[in-house]
Amino acid sequence: VSETLCLLPRLTRSLSSIIYHKTRGNPLFISRLMLSLSKEGLFRPSLIRRRWEWEIEKIECREMPDDVAMFLNDLIRELSEDVQSSLCILSCFGASAGISFINTLERALQKNICVNLDVAVTKGLLDIVNGQYRFSHDRIQEATYNMMEDGVRRLLHFTYGLSLASLSIAEGSANILFIAVNQLNLGGPATVEDPSQSHTVAALNLKAGKKAME
Q1: Which of 22, 50, 79, 104 could be joined to 83 by an S-S link, Cβ 3.0–4.6 Å?
Q2: What mean pLDDT, rounded, does the chain reach?
């Protein structure tokens, strides 16, 4: 922030702290937020003081601008379909997922995911932290998740749940089972196509419950 405004760090320390808190230091969001603040007049050049000035209290209360969501949607849609698909898969599991779990997911879904997520890392949309792929800001995960219609999201959750459940049985993994059941439940009853699937989901929930109590 101090470099952008050509001011000493001590003069922008409080402003930098607020902007960092709002953007988590994501360069994409910092530039977008500062541009939005400038347009709103909360951030403006002073001819008298011959430097930038700002309204710190109003900036502190300011939410992330609405156009950030549009900006992120455009940014994500510029990526290849494979990268978009992998980002959508990751978003269904929350803000982050371990690389080892993504490898498990690749086996369950028979898809290449890591190589596509690595592309998203180079674009600043994801970080790799402590062996995990993590969305570099929660607004990115939110934008990716909301790119899918509600019915599509539910169906994907259910599909991922069934695939992971099959893998958990084949590999005898309780952890995979827990994740599978969570995905099935996120899919909800509306995604169940026949009675046999209802029985399967109920049985998996019961099995996961017993495992959790062991």
Answers
A1: 79
A2: 88
